Amino acid sequence: xxxxxxxxxxxxxxxxxxxxxxxxxxxxxxxxxxxxxxxxxxxxxYRGSGFRGSDLEERRPRIPAGLRAxxxxxxxxxxxxxxxxxxxxxxTFTFAVTMLSLGVGLLITFIGIPVLAAGxxxxxxxxxxxxVRARAxxxxxxxxxxxxxxxxGGGPMAWMGAVLKSGVSWRHVLYAVLHMPWAIFSxxxxxxxxxxxxxxxxxxxxxxxxxxxxGQDGIQLYGDDGHRILIDNPFEIGVTALTGLLITLATPWxxxxxxxxxxxxxxGLLGPSSLATRVVELESDRGVVVDTAAADLRRIERDLHDGxxxxxxxxxxxxxxxxxxxxxxxxxxxxxxxEAHGEVKVALQExxxxxxxxxxxxxxxxxxxxxxxxxxxxxxxxxxVEVDLPARPAAAIEGIAYFTVxxxxxxxSKHARASRGSVDVWKVENRLMLQVTDDGAGGADVTGGSGLxxxxxxxxxxxxxxxxxxxxxxxxxVTAELPWRA
Length: 486
Known about the structure:
Blueprint: E1 2-5, H1 28-31, H2 55-58, H3 65-68, H4 73-105, H5 112-138, H6 156-165, H7 167-201, H8 203-206, H9 209-214, E2 219-223, E3 228-231, H10 234-270, H11 274-325, H12 330-358, H13 361-366, H14 368-378, E4 383-388, H15 395-416, E5 421-428, E6 431-438, H16 451-460, E7 465-469, E8 476-483
Parallel strand pairs: 4-5
Antiparallel strand pairs: 1-4, 2-3, 5-6, 6-8, 7-8
């Protein structure tokens, strides 16, 4: 259903095509996790065409990525990671296998328990080194896993029990065992490609060494008692250099593919488990919910104290004075009663507004379509509302959607300097999508402690997402995604 509030509308303005947000292109799960959490997800970080920060496209390097890859710092960092992986993996593999075998072999005696615990603890230490190395050379931001939590006062026995029971410790051992064969393979492939690539590319520069010091005109590809094949004429030297160029250009991408496996192993085996990450997220969300609830209670108390309560106190005083003047000056008493009647109407309106701010009755009775239409009617600019939902979502999600649109429409009224706006609500699989657009001045940003930052945190508390597209000069499109939870 589409409804226009304020004036007749012509061509629809600022509405982004729903297909841009359908399916897997805009899924909450893709934005959720340690990398895009709540207030950390900023509009300036989610940039596409038309997003603020698109001036970066104007400063795009003139050399294509495929040609500059061999001389980029990233390629050499990844190659350095591969080179260091071989000696480090040999040490960690040898240590892990030795301590694990020794500890298991000695389990028939008490000595095996501390030996095994010490080996697991040392593997956790090696894991810290690997995480630091991955951050520095691969750019992988992997969080530290959950620490040990010994019970019963934290004595030696409690510490050994915590190490042996910790899944993190055993994942570090698994990493030490699996990383060594992969490090050997990636080291061999990377060194071979880099060496042959650069050697063949620069062959025209050092081919002269063969006739001077080698006693032959070039590199020998094949030779037997009666025949030899040498790379010694200009055509063959050029083909060799061209082949070396192709190998050199391909090598950084081969190394990048190899280090992708390292990234997966570091994140999967040396980082926090998905359960631990989810617990941290829920703890953070709980804190946001508690803070938001406390702020709402303080707002309600302030509104009651400064608004309706003050008016009712004044009303009681006016009625008391009117009662005293009722016999002496009936006309003055009538005027005071009339003023008190006006104060009662104002107090009732303030109580209605306060109740609407807590949870509007129209939302409970008639759903989002009617509630958002009522919001749009109170906006200072014409707003078109379109709600396309097959059913009503959960009451809590419906309330969050209502107050999200309410705050965004208030921003349009106060800050956008817009002439019109639109509200679009629809469902994509098990997600509720909201989009509020306007043709104002733009420049909205969720950073810097703005109201949008608090809105993003509140949405994140229920696994929601807020995306702001507001280039300077407008238009502005704010899209929110919420779980359906019918």
